[in-house]
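Obj: model holo form, ligand = zinc ion.
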Amino acid sequence: MILSSVSRSLVFLALSNAFVLLAQQGGRGAQAPQPGPPPVLVKLRDDLYVVQNQQSNGVEIQAYGGNAAIFLTDEGVVLVDSKNDREHDDLMAKIKSLSDKPIKYVILTHNHADHSAGAAKLKAIGANIIISAADRENMARTNQPFIPDFGFVGRAELTLGGKKLEMYQYRGHTRGDAIVYFPGDRVVALGDLLTTAETIPMIVNYPDGGSWMDWSASMDQILRMNFDTAIPGHGPLVTKSQVAELRNRMVTIRERVRALNREKKTQEEITETVVKEFNWGFGGSAGNIPGMMQELR
Ligand SMILES: [Zn+2]
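Output (holo structure tokens):
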């Protein structure tokens, strides 16, 4: 989901309110919150699986990264997102339980480490790594230890084992979110353009070129595609109508922020209002409000 190392600890705290609360209640000597059991493999179609954390919270994002999709063909495996570096062995074990074919391609939805930092080890075992050129630039700008060779602009197609995937570049969470469309399965993987757990609020990352205005424009284009199920960057799978509901909810919040901003409300007043009215704008999304006030005038 996130961003710079600077905000990592903030996000960690923010995304794990329940755990922080527990720790506070535990008082002195309370243990740091621990992640639960490893992610599970969720079967979505015969040839498409999702590696999903068991709990939607910041502790498990830190430990296990974001959702990853595993697409099976007769000629090899395509991954959407690599999760983080430390999840490599568990991810490989899950893939091996489904296919003895090599991992041919890894499509990164965006540059954030919980989705992309596992890519170096996957490249080392022969996978080709794909990302949008814009988010490749984000990786380079933030001096990531591994930067993919290949970046695409706009739209790309990948055919493997007679099956076609389509990639589209949008702006929203970052300047170059890549979504992956599986036409044969009527599924779309959206990265952090969409998070579906109430405990992991949707945000845009302004330093990486995100935008709430472009986000809704992107979601409107995505909603015109023929899919039944969406794989979010974090949280459970959702139906197309749930994607539309989440889009509408965020547009309502965005327009409320804009109206309050035009009324010259302070950041604190805006935050208080949207937290109260929408249960959004605290924790991981609190840091989004100053950027929104800049963008939404
Ligand atoms: Zn992200």
